[in-house]
């Protein structure tokens, strides 16, 4: 009886671990330079647009640094799409050489 419970617990932990690893494998983090943001309202509107995008898991937009740090699902989104979302807010996602 005890070993059955132990087995259940072990398989439960295994399933969880595999789930976490799989999820992490598809999560990418990217930093995109954004031009034109002047205050926290600007960064808030960029952040809002990003968070409303399917596949975006986290978006931290900083108007002082002029950049957006975005965690997204690699299977649902591309960096190009994220740049399009930023551009659609009226600000400009800057293309960086070497990326
Ligand atoms: Cu502003």
Helix count equals 3
Q: What's the shape?
A: elongated
The unique ligands bound to this protein are: copper (II) ion
Low-confidence stretches: none
The helix content is 40-55%
Radius of gyration: 19 Å
Order of helices and strands: HEHEEHE
Content-based structural category: alpha+beta
Largest beta-sheet details: 4 strands, antiparallel
Oligomer: single chain
Quick check: average pLDDT?
91
Q: What features would you describe in this structure?
A:
- It is a single chain.
- The chain is α+β, with helices and mostly antiparallel strands.
- Helix content is 47%, strand content 25%.
- A four-stranded antiparallel beta sheet has the order 2-3-1-4.
- Strand 2 and strand 3 form a beta hairpin.
- 21% of the residues are buried.
- It binds copper (II) ion.
- The site of copper (II) ion (CU) has 4 residues, from helix 2.
- Copper (II) ion binds next to helix 2.
Short summary of the structure?
This protein is α+β, with helices and mostly antiparallel strands and 99 residues long.
Layout of SSEs?
Blueprint: H1 2-26, E1 27-35, H2 40-51, E2 56-62, E3 67-73, H3 79-88, E4 92-93
Antiparallel strand pairs: 1-3, 1-4, 2-3
The structure holds copper (II) ion.
List keywords for this structure.
single chain; 99 residues; alpha+beta; four-stranded antiparallel β-sheet; 3 helices; 4 strands; binds copper (II) ion
